[in-house]
Amino acid sequence: MFRQLSERFGHPLAMAILTLLGMWLIVMVTLPQLQMIDYSFRPNLLPAQRGGPEDGWTLGNYVTLFDNEIHRAIFFKTLWSSVLVTLLTLVVSYPLAYYLAKVATPRQAALCILLLIIPFWINEILRTYSWFIILAFRGPLNEILLALGLIERPIRFLSGDAGVMVGMVYAYILFMVFPLYNAIESLDDNQIRAARDLGAGSIRTHRRIVIPHAKPGIATGCIMTFMLAAGSYAVPALLGSPGSRWFTQIIYNWFFEGGNWNQGAAYAFLLLVLCIGFMSLVMKFFKVGLGDIAK
Amino acid sequence: MDGSVKLDEVVMRFGDFTAIERTSLEIASGEFFSFLGPSGCGKTTILNMISGFLTPSDGQVMIGGEPMAGVPVNHRPTAMIFQNLALFPLMTVYENIEFGLEVRGVDKRKRREASERLLALVALEGSGSKLVTELSGGQKQRIAIARALAVEPRVLLLDEPLSALDLKLRQHMRAELKAIQRKTGITFIYITHDQGEALTMSDRVAVMSAGRIQQVTDPMTLYRAPLTGFVASFVGENNRLEVKVVDRQGPRVRLDGGALGPLMGSAGEDVVLANGQAAALYVRPEHLRPVDDGYTGPRLETTIEAVHFEGAWLMLETRLDASGEKLRVQLGSDLAKQAAGMLEPGRQVGFGYDPEEAVVLPDDGSPVVDEATGEVVETSAKGEAEAGGAHVSSA
């Protein structure tokens, strides 16, 4: 790599680029992570006790999760809800991505993509607050449903998981739509036409032709959405109720309210392992490699 | 099984652009029918109207006597072979061939029997479990044919399917396609810009230009008796000479070639020529032969500019002494041998032709030729009215 770089940019510049890259990877990525791993395996001690007889390696912080019934329930609920959010986002995004890639004229597609992107120019917290307003007990959605006569009394969207789900599907839809769009767009139109010509209806055409082709895109979108959902803090904090706590909120509490960084670090790593595990499962299920996803 | 196709007064417009002018045409069941024309002439549009991917703006398409209006692509008794074949790359050969049957709910054992039978038909026994990506170009071609035939279409639509193959394979596949068509008795509708393909395989050919069918007839007639200047220039090679009609007796037409002197040609019964009218005389390169001074028939005095030896024949590029126009001459090897001494660049040679083989048509403008490929693209707008007069409604 150094040879190629120095041939192109000259020796000093190549050196500088590699040094900066190395610094970035080591100082800003690797070391903090190692520090956190180290934290997670040590007990939470007062500064004076550090390095003393009580200091040492322990699995205690990891065991906490399995001892604490509430935390464990929230951990698995986060897993399950993130899977649901991912599936829901996929279901909402697929028709949209297909429309953008194969049905819409270039003009319509450009307009649609613009409309999709514009809200994302606004901060995620603000966007989430807007859902808070929309879904509120006396908010516009309830008003409209009441006015249409579809419901008799307002619904508490924001108690339970529904509000969190809606907020997350909305927050991460682009991370699903674009990988799907890219994958579907690369499908030769004649493949779809050939399937139709051989007698396939539209459901079968999607099942046998479009979806198999779009598999890497579906996998990428699902992995991204799942990671973002499982690691989301703002949406559950704003749209969730005490009854729908997310695991990230517990991690936050350990760090900033409990002041127990060691415990927080252990929980954070458990969440990371969960995400990596989910990612490998999805990749195995869709039979795609890391290379396909990086495309 | 009636595989006849009828275009009844169909028109196809895209916004302001008329891709297909009002056209009527009947294709008989079991016929090998080709649409021949340069790219953009509308031939693919016609195919798409038959397959159902496009709905005509006016008029209707009938297949087997049944109107197809409102019948979607997946319910039409047609199957298409796409230009890029569009085999399903994620499926095996079996799965590709059986796709149409799977859709129709045929059980697995029957599907496999059908695909084995079709693999035998296209001479690819034993490759059913391969992925289509493992096949060569020619093999993919055959699998595409097998996949389309699997649904037992009444009409098979072929959209320039051979254009991706190299020359040798293409010529081989022509014979094979024709053989398959004979064996199955299915109506084949073939789209191509390659006249070689159209002439060798088809029972009848429709030559198209600018959204209009110029002529529909069998390949031999198409070559010998073109009805429009476009057909004369597009099908085979032709020398075009601008002339004036002197008079006509039956098929024989006496012409005034201006500086070229008196010339002769023949015109079909359908061709209307008035005395004194501007016309074009088409003489094919292979109908010209060197003549000596004693020859009394119509002759063209030329100077040879280049001689190309093509193996079985000799191609001469000459220029007419009187008008400076180019004249191409093709001599068979025996004629070339006889005249060996005279055929050198710079030599002046007179060429004669048999007036029966030279076609006279009303002047409908000189052909527009694609600079890059040298192929005829269109006839110029001049005399569009006459070309319109020759608009064919064939039965």
From TrEMBL, chain A:
Transmembrane spans: 12-32, 79-100, 163-184, 217-239, 264-286
Q: In terms of domain of life, where is this protein from? A: Bacteria
Q: How does it sit in the membrane?
A: Multi-pass membrane protein
Subcellular location, in the record's words?
A: Cell membrane
Known Pfam families for this protein? BPD_transp_1 (PF00528)
Question: From which source organism is this entry?
Answer: Litchfieldella qijiaojingensis
For this protein, the record's SUPFAM superfamilies field holds: MetI-like
Keywords assigned by UniProt?
Cell membrane, Membrane, Transmembrane, Transmembrane helix, Transport
> Can you tell me which family this protein belongs to?
Belongs to the binding-protein-dependent transport system permease family. CysTW subfamily.
Q: Which CDD domains match?
A: TM_PBP2 (cd06261)
Would you tell me the protein name for this molecule?
A: Spermidine/putrescine ABC transporter permease
Main site of residence?
membrane
Record-linked InterPro entries: MetI-like (IPR000515), MetI-like_sf (IPR035906)
Does Cell membrane show up as a keyword for this record? yes
Every copy of the ABC transmembrane type-1 domain together lies at: 75-282
From TrEMBL, chain B:
State one molecular function term (GO). Answer: ATP binding
**Is the keyword Glycosyltransferase assigned to this protein?**
no
Check the record and name the SMART domains matching this protein: AAA
Domain ABC transporter: from-to ranges: 5-235
Q: Which SUPFAM superfamilies match?
A: MOP-like (SSF50331), P-loop containing nucleoside triphosphate hydrolases (SSF52540)
Q: Where is the signal peptide?
A: none
Q: What protein name is recorded for this chain?
A: Spermidine/putrescine import ATP-binding protein PotA 1
Give the organism, scientific name: Litchfieldella qijiaojingensis
